[in-house]
Sequence to fold (289 residues):
Amino acid sequence: MDNMRHLIHLIISLLVLVLGVIGLKNLQITVPRMVRSGDSVLMTCNYDLEGKLLYTVKWYLDDAEFYRFAPKKKPPGLVLPVRNINVNLTISNKNKVMLLNISKKQSGLYKCEATEELPTLETKTDGATMTIIDVPQNKPTILVERQRLPLGETLRANCTSGSSLPAPVITWTLNGEPINNVTIFFKEYSRNIKIDEERTFSQSYLELSMTSEVLQEGKLLLKCLANIPLVYKASDEVEITEDEPFIASVRGDASPHSHRTNGCRPVSITQCLGLVTMFYILLTARSSS
Fold:
């Protein structure tokens, strides 16, 4: 009897060993690294059963199971309540799961765990982190001191982004090209301003000399871009015109209608406050340098 038991145990061990060699392998998960809140997200889980049967596929968020696919169950898909995750059962299956209207609290480590059928119940797992971003509701806004400037004067501009977490990164372009100190001289000051635990906005202040090199047919196009990689990009732009000096006629006829004036886009009280803040920071930076 002992010999028979030993033989059976040996056969089972050999079967497990052989089946394990040719069973489940190469499991790989695909999860977006960053996405916008409110979007739908499709995550995939691919693996090779090498002819074996699938027992279950389970999806986890930070070790809490929220979706299970069991091909022998009717229906095969099952959703479990975790952080109000909304799973599209029509699209989700053994190789993918779709989440609807995702929110920031659903950020975390997502894992896929696949298990093959008896007798081995071989299991493989892979995971990846997804961060969900509440992007700014408003596009960035440029404020300039004046929209008409003569050559030799300094153009001062402020760009303020909408609020989010993380805060957008602000960059500038001049006439469609990134601004750099190789071609022109400029000064830039940037900072992030925290509103609360969930929201921060960015401000960037630019000083640029009005020279013939920056003008194209007496004008320049200044643009600021606010960017959160992979999920958000928005911009604002303003056209600055060269203010040529007025030359009176020989008769001294200085008609007010022929005189060039400086112009500025209509601004709100909030924008004016932002402009005042810009000048204060620029003065502070100058005094400390």
Remarks:
- Confidence is low (pLDDT under 50) at residues 249-271.
- The chain has two domains: 26-133, 141-244+261-288.
- The helical segments are 2-21, 269-288.
- The longest strand covers residues 123-133.
